[in-house]
Specification:
Chain B: It comes from Carya illinoinensis. The structure holds 2 protein chains of 2 kinds. Chain A is an all-alpha fold. Chain A is built from 49 helices and no strands. The N terminus and C terminus of chain A are likely disordered. Classes of the chains: A mainly alpha, B alpha+beta.
């Protein structure tokens, strides 16, 4: 039987496919890759169980290949990996280790089995075996492995074999991350390696410190003198780049550091021929030393060199560098604006994008109108992707900080309308949000908003574009909510009910129907007020009623209040006989019926637009259009259709009656229908306002409600439903949060103050549109001229001149003092105190990094004071003076002796240590500025001691190497560190 | 971490070498390689060699039929990584003599070995060609 086994293994060995066979087979296979691979896996499963180490390792090699390049699971072979790792032949061992680093991870159960194997290989005399083990450890090390193997790593950190030592140094990074307590043991040796004269060691150790410093820069400040020495001395660009990165991170923690290192960095920037090093210098200066004017100037000169280079890589990096510097030194961008704008039409989308970001950085209150204009023209010529990038960045920049840079909201709203019509536009959601948001926040923009919404609604072509549906939903909502600003509600109704609305998704359609309801209510209400006022004895009451309605829908018995405004409103309407026809021309496609309304009615729209015929027509129209929808399958559409139809049913009879009675008998009794209409109208007229983001938080949690309860089960139930688009608009009580514009108003207050405001704004709106027809009356004319006629597409920019225009425009943002005189002050924008600032109270989890940095601080600061005091021992001092090396050896032996001691207590109570770190970390974070200063001074003392100590140690070798450097450094170092 | 992964991919989008410096599951790797390859291979010679992807950057360079893609942290120096790719290719060139896709396919473990000498834990540790190649040559002779 034993013979049988061995013969079969021989057969296996003889006929086993090697990795090369497998690869060739994969290339030539005829049966399809997956079939071939699964066959191969089958083979491997058999072969890997073989007792023959060669067969086994070859099988594993093939498996690793398939796992690495063909995504095949190899976790099932974990135990075989361990077996092959322990093979005595190096070629097999290597395969095993490679497989382990490829497939093992923290949860691999067999990891526990390899600790001893790793320990053995780490101690091997064959440096390649050591290297394999180190390599593997750097990939798969777990907290347990790191803890158990720390002593071995510690030994290797000072081995004379460079090949091994540099790898041991690199492994330390992973070991520290997994087992922070290793810092206490290994950190000193790691630091010693910074003084190594061997370039390989230096490269490795600087790499490690670069990574360590990126996690917690502050802890590594005491090492600044060492890094400085490397910065000045090293000729290796790779090392220099890493050191620069370290300084970039240290700089914010020690202002005086900058003074020392800025000069050497600039030197490198000037002298180096390597673009990579130069770029790193630039990046360091602009990100961390941006207060140093001369350095920044030099960096900007170098950035310019990159920008005008033919190499797209350099261009890209130059643009990136500019966008880093833009917030602090906008002049650098403005200086290079021609180039930046030139690359807006580069063929690389990444470069275009960077360029776009920079252009947006140049936008300011004074040039936003013009830059947006030019960019919109750019977007018309761009491919869909970039077009949307442009639109997105315009939307984002303009809405930043609650529309901070927008002064002329009418312009902005019409820009939104224009953007919606750009063929590639896919920013529907964002535009939708902003349209609604603006409506709720900025009262003064509502008339213009309605005009824009109307423009979007009446264009039947837009309904076919699914990307615009969300915008149309917003437009429909606006038209319903702010219908009182409409010149012709019938036309709006026409648009809301046009046949092509069948192309809309149900959620949007529901908004259309609901808006139609609002418009209908508005018309009926106006009609009733009108007829009531006719019957009353005051001749002016008709106008009063309607204009009052226009001003404030919910003031029903407020006709006395508006007596002052009404005549003027009346007059202004009366002065404009062409008013109506103008409107008609612009709405040609609004349908014949609307035009008829316009023509049959007398010029002043408010008087005669709501005639009996028109109202009946309107009702018929609604019934006709919505009738078929009662069969809709969408609940929302169905529901809303029913509402409106039932409502019509309810009032239809009485409306007719009402007309019959009108003029004949003055019936004083209130009619049911008009009562209903008034009530609904009241309901609709409640103003919607923005809702604070934190509104939900203010709702007290009811007793016994378990919010933390797991609701996962619901998901299976809800999965079937389409989530209703509840975010179309927020139906919050309007003034939930505090408001800037009208705070804490009582209803009485509002009634008194609002109408005049609204009337004047309406009037200006009106004059703005039709200023042409007014006689030149001093005040109004000024308004008319200075207020940019945003409605007309006045800036017809020749697309060819885009570039030059943009260049010219951006000049404006430099001249910040030359702000344009706004004829109209910026309207009030409702802001919620807290709601708009999303404050993320990020609780920083206690990570291992904190533990690492805590340990590092302890080692660097704590133990240094210890060595400093020990230095006072006269014999010690003299020895350190005589020979630096000896001292290091003393340290090492001491440490080795301490090894056992320092290890044990750690295991005893790790929790207490952790607590300590946590506290120290918190202290660090919460320290006030003054305290930081104190701390710094403390550190400074320690650091000084340390650096002088260190300096003493290293003086000797330096003197022989480069005496000049020592001379220049001697005054440098104490000053350097604090 | 610096370097997160190194990929070598041919024009057809097949991965020829994949080295990760953080553990990813097979599915994550498959998705990542698919996304990256699609993104990078679509770009032309006149476009820059840097692509932002998720929360890191990809620096890539094409040599003949093979793309070298290196995923790095955002603060890594892009130009240095390009130089690193070039160094890697030069090193392989010196070892294989005019290296091509097939060399890497059939000597994958050697390519890995070179990478292991050059990069450890995501840090570039060795940049001298002779230092990188000496262990391999020793092993070849043994």
């Amino acid at each position: 039987m034993a013979g049988g086994v061995s013969s079969s293994s021989i057969m296996e060995t003889l006929f086993q496919r090697t990795l090369e066979d497998l690869i060739k087979g994969l290339r030539l296979q005829l049966i399809g890759e997956s079939a071939f691979v699964s066959k191969a896996i089958e083979e491997i499963r058999r072969e890997v169980k073989s007792t023959d180490p060669h067969t086994k390792s070859t099988a594993l090699q093939k498996l690793s290949y398939l796992a690495s390049l063909h995504f095949h699971d190899m976790s099932w072979a974990a135990f075989h990996v361990v077996e092959v790792m322990s093979s005595s032949r190096f070629s097999h061992k290597r395969i095993g280790y490679h497989a382990a680093s490829l497939s093992f991870h923290d949860d691999t159960p067999v990891l526990l089995l390899i600790t001893n194997q790793l320990r053995k290989d780490l101690a091997s005399t064959n440096e390649f075996e050591v290297s394999l083990a180190l390599e593997c450890l750097s990939r798969i090390s777990t907290p347990d492995l790191a803890r158990d193997l720390t002593p071995e790593i510690f030994t290797l950190l000072s081995t004379t074999k460079i090949f091994v030592r540099k790898k041991a140094i690199s492994v330390v990074l992973r070991v520290f991350a997994k087992y922070p307590d290793a810092v206490r043991l290994c950190f000193k040796r790691l630091v010693e390696n910074l003084d190594s004269s061997d370039p390989q060691i230096l490269a490795a150790v600087v790499g490690v410190f670069c990574e360590l410093a990126s996690q917690d820069p502050g802890s590594y400040l005491p090492l600044a003198p060492e890094f400085y020495r490397i910065l000045v001395d090293s000729k290796n660009n790779w090392v220099l780049i890493k050191v620069l990165k370290i300084f970039a991170k240290l700089a914010p923690f020690e202002p005086r550091l900058a003074k020392r290192v800025v000069e050497p960095i600039c030197d490198h920037m000037r002298r180096t021929g390597a673009k990579s090093l130069m770029f790193e210098c630039i990046r360091t200066v602009i990100s961390s030393f941006s207060e140093y004017e001369s350095a920044v100037k030099l960096a900007v000169v170098k950035i310019r060199e990159l920008l005008v280079d033919d190499d797209p890589n350099l261009k890209y990096l130059g643009l990136q560098a500019l966008s880093v510097i833009a917030p602090k030194h906008l002049w650098a961008v403005l200086e290079n604006k021609e180039v930046v704008i030139k690359w807006l039409s580069d063929e690389d989308p990444n470069i275009k994008l960077e360029s776009l970001r920079l252009v947006m950085a140049m936008v300011s209150e004074s040039n936003v109108v013009e830059i947006s204009r030019v960019l919109v023209n750019y977007s018309l010529k761009s491919d869909p992707g970039f077009c949307n990038e442009i639109l997105g960045s315009i939307l984002c920049t303009c809405s930043r900080n609650v529309y901070e840079i927008i002064v002329d909201f009418d312009w902005y709203v019409s820009l939104l309308g224009e953007m919606s019509r750009i063929p590639h536009c896919q920013k529907g959601d964002e535009i939708e949000n902003q349209l609604i948001d603006l409506g709720m926040r900025v009262k003064d923009v509502r008339p213009e908003l309605l005009r824009v919404a109307r423009g979007l609604l009446i264009d039947p072509a837009l309904l076919g574009n699914p990307f615009l549906h969300r915008i149309l939903a917003a437009a429909a909502w606006v038209s319903g909510e702010y219908v009182e600003f409409s010149r012709n509600p019938f036309e709006l109704m026409e648009a809301l009910l046009q046949p092509r609305t069948s192309l809309l998704p149900p959620s949007v359609r529901a908004v259309y129907i609901h808006s139609a309801f609002k418009v209908l209510i508005f018309c009926l209400h106006s009609y009733i007020l009108q007829s009531e006022s006719i019957t009353s004895s005051f001749p002016d009451n008709l106008v009063l009623g309607v204009s009052e309605l226009v001003l404030k829908k919910n003031m029903l018995e407020g006709s006395e209040l508006t007596t002052c405004e009404a005549p003027s409103a009346h007059r202004s309407e009366g002065f404009n006989p062409r008013n109506q026809s103008y409107e008609d021309l612009s709405i040609k496609n609004g349908g014949d019926r609307t035009i008829n309304h316009g023509q049959t009615s007398t010029p002043a729209f408010s008087e005669n637009i709501f005639t009996y015929d028109s109202i009946i027509n309107l009702i018929n129209q609604v019934e006709l259009a919505l009738g078929p929808l009662t069969g809709s399958h969408d609940a929302e559409v169905f529901e809303r259709t029913r509402h409106i139809l039932c409502f019509i049913e309810l009032i239809k009879g009485e409306i007719t009656e009402c007309l019959v009675q009108k003029g004949k008998t003055l019936e004083s009794e209130e009619m049911k229908a008009s009562k209903i209409i008034k009530l609904i109208s009241d309901a609709f007229s409640e103003e919607l306002g923005p809702v604070s983001v934190s509104a939900q938080q203010r709702v007290p949690i009811p007793e016994g409600l378990l919010l933390k309860e797991n609701l996962d089960d619901l998901e299976t139930i809800c999965a079937d439903f389409q989530v209703p688009e509840s975010n179309l608009f927020s139906l919050g009580s309007p003034y939930y949060g505090e408001e800037v514009g009208v705070s804490s108003f009582g209803l009485q207050d509002k009634e008194e103050s609002e109408p005049s405001n609204e009337a004047t704004s309406l009037l200006t709106e009106h004059r703005k549109l039709h200023g042409l027809y007014y006689l030149a009356s001093e005040k109004n004319e000024i308004v008319g001229n200075d207020y940019p006629p945003a409605n007309e597409p006045k800036l017809q920019v020749n697309p060819n001149n885009d570039t030059e225009d943009l260049v010219k425009l951006t000049v404006q943002s430099l001249a910040t003092n030359k702000k344009p005189n706004h004829a109209k002050t910026r309207p009030v924008v409702v802001k919620l105190d807290e709601g708009d600032l999303v404050t993320v109270t990020a609780k920083r989890p206690e990570t291992k990094d904190d533990l690492v940095s805590g340990a590092v601080r302890e080692v660097l600061l704590g133990s240094d004071t210890r060595t400093a005091t020990s230095q006072s021992n006269p014999s010690d001092k003299s020895s350190s003076k005589r020979k630096g090396k000896e001292k290091i050896n003393v340290d090492r032996s001491e440490l080795k002796e301490n090894l056992g001691d320092s290890e044990k207590p750690k295991h005893e109570n790790p929790s207490s240590r952790k607590n300590k770190h946590r506290i120290s970390g918190k202290e660090r974070r919460h320290k006030s500025a003054g305290k930081i200063g104190e701390e710094r001074e403390e550190n400074g003392q320690k650091g000084m001691q340390k650096s002088s100590h260190r300096h003493a140690r290293h003086k000797a070798p330096h003197r022989s190497d480069a005496p000049l450097n020592v001379v220049s450094q001697t005054p440098v170092i104490p000053d350097f560190l604090l | 971490m610096g370097i997160r992964f190194i990929l070598m991919v041919n024009k057809q989008g097949q991965t020829r070498l994949a080295q990760y410096y953080e553990y990813l599951t097979l599915e994550e790797r498959r998705a990542l390689e698919g996304e990256i390859v699609r993104k990078c291979l679509a770009r032309n010679e006149q476009q820059c060699s840097f692509v932002e992807h998720r929360n890191y950057k990809i620096v890539y360079r094409r040599y003949a039929s093979l793309f070298f893609l290196v995923g790095v942290d955002n603060d890594e120096n892009e130009l240095a990584i390009l130089e690193f790719i070039h160094l890697l290719v030069e090193t392989m060139d010196r070892h294989f003599g005019n290296v091509c896709e097939l060399d890497i396919m059939f000597h994958l473990e050697k390519a890995h070995f070179m990478l292991e000498e050059m990069v450890m834990n995501g840090c570039i540790v060795e940049t001298s060609k002779s230092n990188i190649l000496s262990p391999i040559q020793l092993m070849d002779r043994a």
